[in-house]
Each structure stands twice: as C-alpha cells, then as structure tokens.
Amino acid sequence: MAGRVKQSDIEELKAKLDLVEVVSAYVSLKPASAGSFKGLCPFHSEKSPSFNVRSSPAFYHCFGCGAGGDVYKFVQEIEHVGFTEAIEKLAERSGFTLTYEDGGNQETSGRARLLLANNAAATFYQSQLQTPEGETGFKFLLSRGFDAKAIEQFGIGYAPKGWQSLLEQLKKQGFSLEELVTAGLAMPSEKGGYDRFRGRVLWPIRDANGQVLGFGARKLYEEDQGPKYLNTPETPVYHKGSVLYGLDFARKEIIKRKEIVVVEGYTDVMACHLAGFPNAVATCGTAFGEDHIKLINRLFGTSDEPASVVFTFDPDAAGQKAALRMYSDTSKFNALTFVASGPDGLDPSDLRQQRGDAAIGQMLEARKPLFEFVIRHRIAKFSLADLDSRAAAARAAAPVVAEIVDPALRAGYTRQLADWVSLDISEVSQLVSQVGRSQVVERVTPLRAEAKPVQDSPASKFERQVLEVLVQAPKAFDGDKLARIVGAGFQSSSYQLVADAANRISQNLGSPDWVNQLANQLSGEELDLLRALALAPLPASTAAEIERYAKGVVAGAMLQALAREKTDLLAALKRIDMSNQADAYAMVQRQLVELETERRTYMQ
Known about the structure:
Layout: H1 7-16, H2 19-24, E1 30-33, E2 36-39, E3 51-54, E4 59-62, E5 68-69, H3 71-79, H4 83-94, H5 110-128, H6 135-143, H7 148-153, E6 157-159, H8 165-172, H9 177-182, E7 186-187, E8 194-195, E9 200-206, E10 212-219, E11 229-231, E12 244-245, H10 247-257, E13 259-263, H11 266-274, E14 280-283, H12 290-300, E15 308-311, H13 317-326, E16 336-339, H14 348-355, H15 357-365, E17 368-369, H16 370-379, H17 387-402, H18 407-420, H19 425-438, H20 458-472, H21 479-488, H22 493-504, H23 514-519, H24 524-535, H25 543-575, H26 582-603
Parallel strand pairs: 13-14, 13-15, 15-16
Antiparallel strand pairs: 1-2, 2-3, 3-4, 4-5, 6-9, 7-8, 9-10, 10-11, 12-14, 16-17
Helix pairs in contact: 3-4, 11-14, 13-16, 14-15, 16-17, 17-18, 17-19, 18-19, 20-22, 20-24, 20-25, 21-22, 21-25, 22-24, 25-26
C-alpha cells in the first residue's frame, strides 16, 4: 500500500489546477462578476444559483447551504472520497505524477490501481470479442443491429467462459487477487479466486473523463444460471447510484441541446446515439434516484431556455411502474419532464432494429408530459361509460393533480382531467382541493437545507464589505491602515477574528497566495466565513472598477477608525488635569488636529 502523498506534490498540484475548470466538469457555471462564476449548488437542491467559484483565490462557497473549500475539498464532497483519493483523482486527470513518502509513485496508490485494473480488463475483454469463442458475443451484437464500428465505438467486449481467464491475464500485468476482488473483477475462493464475469458480453461504464469504473454484462448462454444482466458491485471507484451509462459520450450534447433522454438499457443508449440522439444515457442496474436528479440539474445549470428530461420507460408493467414512481420527483428537476414509449411495446433498441433510425425520432417526438402520462394511466383503469365510472376515475387521478407544485400547471391539468372524464370542472377542482388539504406528501429531504438570508444592520453590512475588500483586493490596504481599522473594532466577533488574523500577517498584504495564507490562520466557522468573503461578488466588473470600489471602502473604514480614535482622544482629554499635565493636554490637542487633517483627506 502506498504511503502518504508528499506535501510538496499536494501544493504543486493544487497550484497547477484551475478550480473553475475542475468544478465545470460537474456544474454548469456562468460568469457572475469579475473573476467569479455562479451555478446551481451540487450539494443541496435549489433552483436559483447560490454556488460561487473563483480561480483566484481558489475557493468555492455556497451561500445557500454553506458548503465551501478548495479544489481537494470539492472533489472529496462531489465524489464521496477521502482526501488522498481526491488528490489522486485530480492527478490522474491532469497527468501529474504523484510521489509518496515511502518512495512509491502514483502507480502504487489504491484508487489508481483499481482504475488501471478496470482499463486493463476493458482492453482484454475487447480483444476477446475477436476470438473464436468471442464470435458468439459478436454475432449477438450484430443480431441486435450493431455493426463492428458501433461495437468498437462503445468499447464492447466479451468475457470468456473460463474461470480464470481475466485473472491470469491481469496477474501477468502485476495486479494482485486482492486488487481484482476490490475492483469487482474477481471473486475470492479457496482455490485462488475466479473471474466475476464469464461467458458474457460486456459494456464498460466510464466516468466523464473516460476512466472505466465498472462493467455491465449480459448473459449469452442458456446454461448460465446467473441474472440476465450482471453489473460491477459497489467498489471504491464505482457507485451505481451516481453513475449514468453513456454520459462520457452524451455530456456535451446534453449541455448543448438542454435535453437528456433517459433509457433503460445499454443497447437502448447505443440505439439512440446511432439514430442521431447522442444525448441518451441509462442508469446502471438501479432505479433512477436523487443523485441522478442532482447530476442532471448540474448539467442543465440555469438558463432562460427551458430544459427537458425525456424518460423512455418500457411500456410493460415494470416500465409503467417506474414512470409512476418518477412523477412524485418531477418538481425536483430544473427541467420539464416527459415520457416517450415505443409503439407495440418496443424499447429503443428493438424499435431501431425493426423500424430503423427514423422510428427513434418519431418515438421521441410523440412524447407526453410525465403528469399527463400518469393521469391517463390512472383513468385508463375505468370504462368512463357511466357517471359512477367517470367520478371514480376523477377521484383516482385527483391525487396526481394535487401534487403538482406549479399553481398554473395544476389548474391546467385540473381542466384537462375534467375534459378527459367528462365532468364539470368545478366538481374536479373540488376533488383536487380536498386531496390537497388532506394528503401528506412525503418528499426526499435535501442533503442540506437552504439557509434563510440574514437581515444585517447597515453597520454590519459595511463591516462585511470591508472584509470582502480585505480578502479580494488586499492591495487597497497597507499595514498601518489595517492595524488602525482592526483596532477600531468590528461589531461581529467572527468578523473581528478574521480581521485580527489578517492583521497578524499584514506584511503579506498583496501576496499572490494571500487568501491561502489567511486561511492557514483560521478554522471552523471563521474559515467558512473567509471562503464566503473570497467568493462574494464585488459591485464592479473590471480591474479598474474594483480598484476604485476598494479604495472607497477603505476610505470609509478609515473614517470610522478616525472617528473612534477621536472619541478615545476626547475621553483622554477629559481625564487630563490641565494644572498638572499641561504638556500632555497640548499633545492630545495636536493629535486631534492631526486627526482632523487626516479625516479631510478621506473626505475628498
């Protein structure tokens, strides 16, 4: 096992990374102010962007939930990994070779080894598709309408029937049984382990950077007693609940089109891409969940242009059930949601194979809003031939309409439901209202609750502006001004602690890594405050405007400091006995005159 990453490497890698570029791989960012970018927070549910990122100083902070930190903290939180794993992931992406205190290098680290093993396995499986045994898998793919070019494009492979085919091959490349078991490629046994995947066609599941995280495998032979599809289990690098198959190919198109097509299988993804819809993805052996919604929302970001999520659930009972399960989560999407079903019960793969590429487009064009799909499904159970049946259908569908969050949309579907069941709209509206009052809707609680804005006093707001300038434009200060402003005091104890920390290292004002030096002086709530200050948008868009704004804020702070100094001097003057301390009295008076002269310079 590799030792600790050398501290010098940690700092060098961090200096090379662009935080905005790293975050942009997960969050759709837009310019907010000079040097600042904004997007939807990936760590809690929101529809108005409160997540801010800066490259210099390299911090991110969410004003909604309080999440914040540097590039390593971001990867730790977004990928659910430890500190060392975050470093290793970033090093892999940027081509930076890490060294470890025991003399090893990145090739010996745990996460990197698992990714190397997965990539080596993908190469091995692809080569096996060209062997005589692999011809069975190749013919299966051809029978589903996929030619050699498509098979190569998606990196599909074949796992031989042998119990240790992959195991023996990767052991020759230096991988241990323990590593292969941890990667989900092998199973332990008393006889030295055996391959997890045997006699199957395999699809590599990659992350957005093309690294192979795991595999999805379909059985080919009748004698195989396993499930039809077998996926990589949860591993340190593969978490099925937060992975979408095909996202490595689809990400750019999803962002470009503001639309994502969610299908149910690997071959369905291939069919859509080959038919001209490269924005299709699929879940990997799990139901569509909260993490998938957050991932899609991050891809869409914020825009005046509406985004769309199109689910292509199979028209069988399982697909219908999945659609019904999704409608309660509709309000969590920053997009409109639709359902598209193939004719005659055909999924996208079968549809393309039987009716051609154009049929995929026709299926997607015929999509229906998810709410309409669910409402129609509810009323389809009733004949609607008599008043009792129509009333029962309305009662069955009313809870669906009642759960629609958007008032205008809810009113629209109330009218639509009344038309579909041929009842007066007032009667249907009353049913919906009754359900809305009585029904308790259970919803998934966000990971972090959105914070309510604090109404600061004018004095507190100005103190914060002073600290924002101190953090983001420290050259507007000098050591003497900072000491006097800090000495005058801040009403907020947290503000005072940050200011005191800055004063302690005032000799470094204007240093390129000023914020990092300041961060080293703080911890806990004050460190969180520093991140928020570093990312707060200043009311200026150019370097010249920022300089002018900062100069004005510092002048205002100095005026307050001078007022405090004047108050102290006047108090001192009252305490002096003129008959015995004439020189001291004269000195304080001179200081008051000097303060007034200085005050006037800041008033100009």
